[in-house]
Amino acid sequence: MNPFCKIRHPFSYSYFYATFILIAVNFIVYMISRAIPYIPYYCSLNVVSITKRYYFWQFLTYMFVHANWSHIISNMLGLLFFGVSVEKAIGSKEFLLFYFLTGTLSGIFSFFIYWITGQTNVYLMGASGAVYAVLLLFAVAFPKAKIYIWGIIPVPAPILVVIYAAIEIYSQFFSSGSNIAHLTHLAGFAFAWIYCIVRFGENPWKVWKRNYRS
Prior knowledge:
The chain is built from 10 helices and 2 strands, in the order H-H-H-H-H-H-H-E-E-H-H-H. Strand 1 and strand 2 form a beta hairpin. The termini are close together.
């Protein structure tokens, strides 16, 4: 059963390689930021920049700024592996709506956490929140798919989501000195979950239970 059959107000289906376009834009922005070092300052999400300087665009642009090569490559590989299949399943327009909405909401959530906790010196950057959201949607669209960890160990997509969520929760509360935005990753999962319920009329947990029994 197609988990997206109850989609509310669907777009006309089209596929125009949005995933590849997003990846290309991310790499272009990264190369520009290497040449112009102050780009991350203006585009990363920072509490002071938004509350004092009104750089509201940072809620969107933070997704396209990355700290280093390993950061952008890991995010773009995740987007490539899961995004192409998801985009083909729901169409490019729906995919872009999902990607930008979950990514932006993850940024807004992180902003309020930083603001409330006084973390005004944090500069949030990277597509991880949106990529984690795409991973969850992949697990909903293809609940029987297996992802091979290190190319060897097959893990069902829903189990991988649970494993990643557990790792992020543990890392958030029990690891220290990390520059990884674990709460942003968890927010990506959470907003993707809500999106599935509101937009697609499907609870991911029920989709996974239904396919586990079949």
